[in-house]
Amino acid sequence: MITPGILGLAFVLLFLALMLVFAAMGRRRPGGNLRVLRAYQRLTQAIGIAVESGRCMHVSLGSGEFNGLQAGAALVGLGVLERVARTASISDKPSIATSGDGTLGILSQDTMSTAFAAIGASNQFDPNLGQVVGITPLSYVTGTVQVVSSEQVSATVIAGHIGSEAALIADATSQIGGITLGGSDSLPAQAVLVASAQEPLLGEEFYAAAAYLNSSAINTASLRAQDFFRWTLIVAMLVGAVLKILGVV
Amino acid sequence: MKSAFSAAIAITFGLVVLAGYFIDLSLLVLLRDVFLRYTVILAAIALVVGVVNLLMVHWRKMSTAQGGSSIYSLLLVVSLILTAIIAGLLGPTNTLALWIYQYVQLPVESSVMALLTVVLVVAAARMLRRSANWFNLLFLATALVMLAGAVPLFGLNIPGLHGAGGLREWIAGVPSVAGGRGLLLGIGLGTIAVGLRVILGADRPYGR
After folding, report:
1. pLDDT tens column, B104-114
2. Domain boundaries, given as residue ranges, for chain A
3. Most B CBs within 10 Å: which of A126, A165, A169, A231, as the mutation test of the B interface?
4. Under a CB-based contact definition with an 8 Å cutoff, are residues A40 and A209 in contact?
5. CA B23 – CA A10 distance, rounded (Å)
6. A32-214 is classed in which CATH architecture?
7. Does the CB of B88 have a partner CB in chain A at under 8 Å?
8. Nearest CA to CA, how far is B57 from chain A (Å)?
9. How many CA atoms lie within 13 A of A152 on its CB side?
10. Per residue in B94-105, pLDDT tens?
11. DSSP code of A205?
12. Residue B23 with chain A: CB contacts under 8 Å
């Protein structure tokens, strides 16, 4: 008998198999033929502006627990942080990361340490660049707003689990002339980011960060696997709706 | 070598926990539960490290006296130490600890939420100034309809907007739910992709 557990395992294994197949197929041209997402283009521009203006970039990793369902968004955020820290490390002011969870705070410091080591600038790394600013959603936002204002950030990248309070971070960044871009796994945050961020990332666009910022074969392959399943689900839902209308099911 | 060792540990633990969710074998389920309990303990330790980090950052701000922000830092350090002493010595359910929660934390957090309402209105105006395209206009119009339809307008129920079968109920029940579920499906697929990349060792949030 097929249990939901076996079905789930089959789904994950199929996803994994597709990722590996797409990775093998795309080894020659990793990152090729990705549709343009303005948020990732703006991110690259924002890093350049931060370096030129001598201001720093800020990555907001949110206040989600790393050992829960919000870990996926946190992992995306850490990937974005690595890219930002690595690219902006030549700036006079290195990037900073804020988080609202102890584990995420430690991982953000580790990610930044790795990024500095990768470009041979380990001596510039300061553990206080990865800060835990508050451990409840609202205290996190209050602490982050203070960091944004006092550090005079040129751009904030919101990448992690956060609620509608993300608007306060975007507003604080806007008040000092910076821009906000990013996304979250939370629907209220996505809704407020549409209004308050210059470049919001909606739904799966947020999870495409790895493919757009680090165009390795496996990152692009995971994005293609996501797209494959997304279209499969869309077709299945449309077929289901038509069958329901026709009275077949 | 260190990096490969870390990756091997992460991949092994990831696979065991993942398999424990799908395969109903008592050993796998037991291992999954044990590993998850370890995670909770490690997360609690990480929280303490995070609080120490918070203290250190603000201590440094105070000692380098960065203008007005040093006053906020002083306030944070004093409040944190006081609360930790009170809740630590008397217990989190003590009257004094609960008083701090009820008369300090709750009002402050409620004020931040109230501030959020104003910020969102300003954000909507900024969005239109940035780009008054059809998408943004539709977004704002929908928000206004939902807001106006939430309560009777000056005590009056507007036919077609309020109540069962009204525009607000239709938006909340059909396009909003459909769009929300679509986004959630994308988020679900994205989370699976991220998890598999960690298990494959392509993403290494634990450093290299």
Report:
1. 989 998 999 99
2. 32-214, 216-249
3. A165
4. yes
5. 11
6. 3-Layer(aba) Sandwich (3.40)
7. no
8. 6
9. 7
10. 999 999 999 998
11. G
12. 5, 9
